[in-house]
Amino acid sequence: MVTSGSRGVVYAIRDFPPGCGRLAAPINRSGEHSVNEISGLQKNLPKANVANSEKEIFPKNARKYYPQGRVSVIRDFPPFCGGNAPPLSKEERTERTSLKNKDINLVTLVSEENPLEKTKCTDGKQVIEAVRDVIAPEGSAPILSAEDIRSKPDEHASGKTKKQGAYEASSRNDMKEGMHYMFENSIKSPFGSSPNEFDSKSKKAEDKDFQTNLSDSSAFENELLENDRESQEVLSDRWIVPGLMASAQLHGKVTFNPDLAGGSSKRKRKKSFTLLQRDNTRKNSSTKWAHQGFNQVVVWDKKDTFHGDGQYTNDSFAQRSCSNDVSFPPCQTSTGHNDAMTSRNKVREALRLFQAICRMLLQEEESKLKEERKTFRRVDYLAVKIFKQKMEFVNPGKSIIGLVPGVEVGDEFQYFVELNIVGLHRPSQAGIDYVKQGERTVATSIIASGSYEDDLDNSDVLWYMGQGGNVMQKGKDPEDQKLERGNLALATSKVVKNPVRVIHGETRSSGLSEGRCKAYVYDGLYWVEEFKQEPGPHGKLVYKFKLVRIPGQPEIAWKVVRKSKVREGLCVHDISNGKEIIPICAINTRDAEKPPTFVYVPRMIYPDWCHRTPSKGCSCINGCSQSAKCSCVMKNGGDIPYNHNGAIVLPKPLVYECGPTCKCPPSCYNRVSQHGIRFQFEVFKTKSKGWGVRSLNSIPSGSFICEYAGEILEDGEAEKRTGHDEYLFDIGNNNSDSSLWDDLSTIMHDAHSSFHQVVPDSGFTIDAARVGNLGRFINHSCSPNLYAQNVLYDHDDERIPHIMLFAAENIPPLQELTYHYNYMVDQVHDENGDVKKKSCYCGSSKCTGRLY
DNA sequence: GTATTGTCAGTGTG
DNA sequence: CCACACTGACAATA
């Protein structure tokens, strides 16, 4: 759909040309996924829906096309929401880098034995370069490995540590059982008897008094009622509650407005979902599909409904509103859009940078796997060490109470330490973060690595188990948990009633080559409602804290996806008609329109006239990781461009995957995008941009999304198709996704990169109008979450690489996938040669307002 | 220096 | 084969 220069007329809106059929034969993939596996999923779909959609998939006479150019002024995404936060401007980046003040030598910092010349970084690009230098410095500099980076472990008293303190999320049954064991009335108010002790001038001894004698929150409830009021005043100017962004300074009760709540509070909460990963895996052995690391396979069932739509997250964010009659603390005045956007950009950029460093380090570790070691190093530690010396953390300073600027509900993180980087959770290890507030210590955030109490009608309640007690420590007997540190802070938060952030740590399906299988999701703000002491699994007393989600926040996408069993607005079960490994359904909750039909091909079609030069494959038999021997790896500059979990390490001008003439097996790590889609995608009707694409799964940064498939056209042919050229993609024009990577995209000139092989404007265009795949539905954004990557695997003609889309960041479920179309403003012409203009409605702060 | 903390990656078990 | 449990190493903080 993208064309630039003077070639063609371009439409931003996906209008579907008539005359498309579904003729292409299914493509057999030698790969892991069989059609049976797909039908396995469909078996689980309600019969009524199946039958219904069978008719609906390709309606015979029911084509309905929107007129072209039907773009409303309504913005699809609210500013700085969802995937639309733009990259930082130069000024913003410069502003936030700490290196003006620090003069840090990365290498000496991490390895004092091998000092290199000093480096100063002012942006992410330089950080990446520094990482490259460390991993494989150019010239005569000594070569350092990731191992060298690691500071030598100083004789750590080994065997001293290891302890497990925090468990959480008991079921409601556990709670009832535990009630019998509760200590009663053995409680002494931690704050003494005088309400005045909540005053900021209260005695210092109170925390100590608070210590060990408290086992139940209810017993001193009355006593503290008055204190609450006063304590709120102490803290009030620090609270930021998202629901009040639009009604800052509001005190007391807030009226609930269902229209503003994004519908979230109207949703039924029922434990009626079926999660294949949990419940069905044993029966259904074919869960290999849709697996990559983060994935859960979701099966819909007919009882529940799904109210979400494409702008779910974004709408909700924009329209956060308080609900019901919860008394909110007063909150800070809204900081304004620009600040919020800047914060959001900082968070996104920091995470991208960190994740890129991680992938580079992981690549390095993996390349050594066979040669030297059998085990990986902790790339997260290495990465954060590098990151910290070059960039400031976001939201530095004391732990924030309440909303963290730039972090939105639903944001996902791959490593624990990322929470630290963005200021969401300060401790590097502990699950409870707290901050001193005058004389008291209140909790600011917790990480719940267990699961929610997903009991009927109440999925917003979390029972969190406290920390401490020597539970898993070797050589020590478990003890009763004490009301100190995190436990004390949570108890105080209960009394003081300050919001506590909850981060939900989730272990995802694991597999050998899937890499990490854990992720953290920011769930929003909670109140600590009560706590109690009861026997834990080891028999000793533990604290349990009841946290209740503050209403009015956006619902968390993964919860929505799991809860709902039927996709509301489901109009097509599989737009690929079985040609993709994983079915792609179509959702329309806005009107009656169905996705238009077209010839679905999962991959690029090369016409006869296109004489592709035959690809000369490598002759690796035992995999292609030994770089010196593999011709494909050499073409990539000496490294496999992918991690073993399938994530692309960095964007490159051109990636050479192993192909059909290579001797390596299909499981070769240098084969990623050729295997096709790995996630459950769905096409959905957006508010104002026509159809869009989103995923039901969490997508880790660097993951392959899909190819942009279609017919290959030569320049002349492309010109003739100006009638419906909204699906043109100009090959060679996708190299400058500068808005996305900003720093990263321009740093491909290191020794490892095959930078000299820049793909020029090849004179070829992909037309997905009549023939195409999922990629044709993906919309443009000025601050996208995907980027296009040139890939070669089945031929050597660099003029016509495959256009492969990859995730630029972690993408939560249901967030729209977008990439930058790379139009050049005033360079698009219509059939008369006049300059065409099209407005962009992506809504990001980077948005120029013009698509072309 | 020490105690505390929980993750991560690998290994073992059912 | 898969899910889960367990373990050693680890780094940061109070």
Automatic annotation (TrEMBL):
Record field: compositional bias (Basic and acidic residues): 147-158, 198-210
Keywords noted in UniProt: Centromere, Chromatin regulator, Chromosome, Methyltransferase, Nucleus, S-adenosyl-L-methionine, Transferase
Gene3D superfamilies in the record: SET domain, SRA-YDG
Pfam family, one: Pre-SET
Ranges of residues in domain Pre-SET: 616-676
Cellular compartments per GO CC: chromosome, centromeric region; nucleus
GO terms classed as biological process: methylation
Listed name of the protein: Uncharacterized protein
Lineage: Eukaryota, Viridiplantae, Streptophyta, Embryophyta, Tracheophyta
